[in-house]
Amino acid sequence: MDLLLSPDEEAIVASVSGLLTGSALADPDASWPDQAWKELAALGVFGLAVPEEHGGLGFGVAGEVLLFREFGRQLVRGPLLGTTLATQLALDSGVAELADVLISGSATCGYAEPLAGSSPARGDLVSGTFRVWEGHGASLLVLVTPQWSGLVQADRLNAEGLRATTLPQTDSSVDMAQVVLTDVPLLAQVPGTGIASRAALLVAGMQTGIAEATLAESAVYAVTREQFGKPIGTFQAVKHRCADMAVRAEAARFQTVYAALAWDDPAMRTQAPGQVAAAAAVAADAGRRNSADNIQNHGAMGFTLEASPHHYLRRTLVLASLLGTPRAALEQIAERA
Amino acid sequence: MDLDFSADDHAFRDEARTWLRENVPRERRPEGGKAMRDFDFEWQHRQFSGGWAGISWPAEYGGRNLSLMQQLIWYEEFAGAGAPPVGINFVGLSHAGPTLIARGSEEQKARHLPAILRGETIWCQGFSEPGAGSDLASLRTKAVIDGDELVVTGSKIWTSYAQHASVQELLVRTDPQAAKHRGITWVIGDMNAPGVQIRPIKNLVGIEDFCEVFYDDVRLPLSNVVGDIDNGWSVAMSTLSFERGTAFMADIVELSRTVTELVALAREVPRWDGHGHAYDDDHVRVELAQLRAEVDALRSLNYATVSRVRREGRPGPEASIVRLYYGLLSQRIYDLALDIAGPQCSSAAPDSPAARWVRGYFNAFRATIAAGTKDIQRSIIGERMLGLPKDR
Lengths: 337, 392
What we know:
The complex is a heterodimer of chains A (337) and B (392). Chain A is an alpha+beta fold and 337 residues long. Chain A is built from eleven helices and ten strands. Among the domains of chain A are: 109-191, Butyryl-CoA Dehydrogenase, subunit A, domain 2 (Beta Barrel), CATH 2.40.110; 194-336, Butyryl-CoA Dehydrogenase, subunit A, domain 3, CATH 1.20.140.10. Chain A has helices at 7-20, 34-42, 60-73, 80-92, 96-104, 194-224, 236-264, 272-297, 299-302, 309-320, 325-336; strands spanning 109-114, 121-122, 125-133, 140-144, 148-153, 162-166, 176-185, 188-191, 226-227, 230-231. The longest helix of chain A is centred in the middle third of the chain and has 31 residues, at 194-224. Chains A and B meet through helix 6, strand 10, helix 7, helix 8 and helix 11 of A and helix 8, helix 9 and helix 11 of B.
């Protein structure tokens, strides 16, 4: 039992992190960097959890969670969640050639979930209204519902049964749209909660990254910003708020790692969903509260669009709006009690 | 990252579980007095006879020298079986014993260690003073050398089980001129020596489990000094290096069970307005789910501590995160318990179900005060983990 990274895990995280640092993928104001996406795919990112015999790197979901933590930390944009989930769904439903295309980075997939209150009709065709995250320019959409998940073609938006409307963005660095599907053929589908639960883990990974990045920003600011002749981190009011941020970030990190390891472990099949729900709840809380504390720690600078804290706050809010909000995770835990 | 346990570890878990099932006392642990003392003695002796005393101690001192993973498994199974805490043997087993192993002379080890394992001598801790709590190094109980003896004068406080103990790990100031962390000596105190007076203090729960201890020219042989004269701070700090996070697992398993019992309570008692059950209240149900999630996270945090110890030999300042998280979480659990149990909390008969939650609520304050308050823990996290400037 070891919840710390192995040298292999350290290495893959370092290479992904190195590629992202300064990349347009992590720049909220840059235009979409097709080349950077291809480079990310070339590192094997979209097949990280896929077993080696299926063309992946075999790191398991635990490895994938580490990557998403990095995506959260650097506020990476793009169809990361959808593409990763679609790869797994393609493999689970036996469409290996589709998985290969996604792993290679030559196709991307947006993430879609039913609009709150709507329940899509599904047979070989699917109809319903979906919220789509990072679907712009994607060739596929992965439809994630609590009962089943499926894949549809998306490169002919606004034709053949797909009608998309871009939504106003709380976080302008990501794309959120509403898509109405009418009798669209499903390329692949799998029953059950597996993909939704997997999505919850990856979102928890991103929330963890946000909780850690905001902690790091606050710690740096508390050392450099001086008032009353001292760094503000000398004062317990600020120091202790930073300590509470550290507590939340660590709790989110290790619960998410533990849940991912449980997910990968066949002997823990019964416990894994509860652990994933706990990770979703704890990480969402850490992401939002640390982002908020980071604004407070930056004082008036935090209340501007000129400093970076607002980016984290916006992203954590978008993430918390997915998968029925963290309340859905808590209801799952309550049902298991 | 992995959750793997070896085949040996799995076999060990079976062995521990079987032994515990057959040996854990069925009676409830009495809360005080001679009955409690006898109970703790008997339980420790039974563990000793079964080969389970001093599981982390080296074999040469009679310990079982278990690997970190097997210690973790032992404490999980220990709490899972509902085993009573080590109680009055805590200081000897987890504090004084390991300190003697690390810093004591061969003679001190031979004299004291076997008796600790067998549960024959009770140790207590004489560290805190009325004027030295969070700022422990400012302690003023003084000791002067007179021939081959130390003569101790002053007082200690918050000394758990002093009224039952025969021996004490005692910090005294031997050089009043030196800087505060220097000039302190760690000495084995004799609780039965002339000049020692003990005043039990009733804690918030109403139990006399800690005391104030007065020393009036108490004479201790110099051979009782552990380490060197004036070097006691380093001896006391070496105790911290025994912190492994493994024993803490038992408290976490216990806290997890408390949440399970609280869910059961919420399904039994009426909702605040008398309609249905407390569990039908959205606020109660969601808050219980949040607490369950955080207990899971607490366990993961502690696994991370054990992982760090395994890699680096020590838990690092991150251990303060686990303590703080545990303390705040246990208080929130009992806070919600009072909401759930409702009006009966204000007039709970001692044996009633509500009394258990009221007592737990009072007792939970301990978790953010003892062994470093939550404020001290936050400063440790801020300074040693995040690199913020010292505030003192």
